[in-house]
Design brief:
3 helices; rod-shaped
Length: about 150
């Protein structure tokens, strides 16, 4: 579990750094568009450009502004989703031992389907490939017998 926590902490740091950089880039782009809109308005008010000249530029800038707003919202959603997935990962990993010791056959089967892919029953042993991100955990080696039970139709 300690390794999982360390891996998660490292991934969180990387994700936070990427998200912060991305948000700063989008905010800078947004501020640049806002400044251009302000300049366009000032030029229009000063009579430097006509309404006909200003409107296409204004429309494009407003479309760009809406696009950047959408990117900012997506970055926030991505950050929130990352947190949700991280919490789910930790919950799953921390409940595995308890599930192995006291879970029903159905709960164990559901857990294996959730955490593993390519489940193969060979000579009473389950061989599998852990799904991402569970493949990072060293204790989920192929052929591990922590779920072994008398019944073979998991």
């Amino acid at each position: 579990m300690q390794l999982a926590t360390e891996l998660l902490r490292e991934k969180h740091t990387n994700e936070t750094t990427k998200t912060t950089q991305r948000v700063k880039q989008y905010q800078d782009e947004y501020n640049n568009i806002k400044k251009r809109l302000d300049n366009l308005t000032a030029m229009r008010l000063d009579g430097e450009i006509s309404r006909e000249e200003a409107m296409p530029v204004k429309s494009q800038l407003l479309a760009d502004q809406a696009r950047v707003n959408s990117l900012l919202a997506d970055s926030e959603d991505s950050s929130n989703n990352w947190l949700k997935y991280a919490e789910n990962f930790v919950d799953t990993v921390t409940s595995a031992k308890s599930l192995a010791e006291t879970g029903t056959l159905e709960e164990k089967k559901d857990f294996l389907i959730y955490v593993c892919s390519n489940l193969i029953l060979t000579e009473g042993k389950i061989v599998f490939t852990p799904r991402k991100p569970y493949n990072l955990l060293p204790s989920l080696n192929r052929g591990t017998k922590w779920w072994a039970v008398q019944e073979s139709n998991l």
